[in-house]
Amino acid sequence: MKTLATQQIKLRDVAPNSEAPLQITLPQLDAREAFLNITVTKDSRTRYSEAGHPIATLSVPAEGKHRAASAFRTK
């Protein structure tokens, strides 16, 4: 597996069980199979995890030369 690009985006003021738009620019893709992998982490420490611990993941197939990802709901 090869990583084509990485981005770190900080969403602010997103309430639990709500939605927020997320603009992502994908690199140029060729005909090979590709996925957009999203990991959600929490900035602060909690009683059950350290800061930066992954709390959600999403993998979306990226088809064709360029495709926008579907909505991602925060919990």
Describe the structure.
This protein has strands at 34-41, 54-62. It is mainly beta. It has a domain at 28-63. The chain has a two-stranded antiparallel sheet. The radius of gyration is 14 Å and the shape is elongated. GO terms for molecular function: beta-galactosidase activity.
Strand content: 15-25%
Q: What structural category do the secondary elements indicate?
A: mainly beta
- Order of H and E elements: EE
Which runs of at least 5 residues are low in confidence (pLDDT < 50)?
Answer: none
The count of strands amounts to 2
**Given the C-alpha coordinates, what overall shape results?**
elongated
Distance linking N and C termini? 29 Å
Please bin the fraction of helical residues: under 10%
- Please state the CA-atom Rg, rounded to the nearest Å: 14 Å
Counting H and I runs of at least 4 residues, what is the number of helices?
A: 0
Give the neighbour order of strands across the main sheet: 1-2
**Largest sheet report:** 2 strands, antiparallel
Give the overall pLDDT as a whole number: 81
Protein name: Cryptic beta-D-galactosidase subunit alpha
Domain Beta-galactosidase: 2-58
Keywords: Glycosidase, Hydrolase
Pfam families: LacZ_4
Quick recap:
By secondary structure, this protein is an all-beta fold.
Output the keywords.
75 residues, mainly beta, 2 strands, hydrolase
Task: Summarize the topology.
Blueprint (H helix, E strand, L loop, with lengths): L33 E8 L12 E9 L13
Antiparallel strand pairs: 1-2
GO molecular function: beta-galactosidase activity
Keywords: Glycosidase, Hydrolase
Enzyme class: hydrolase
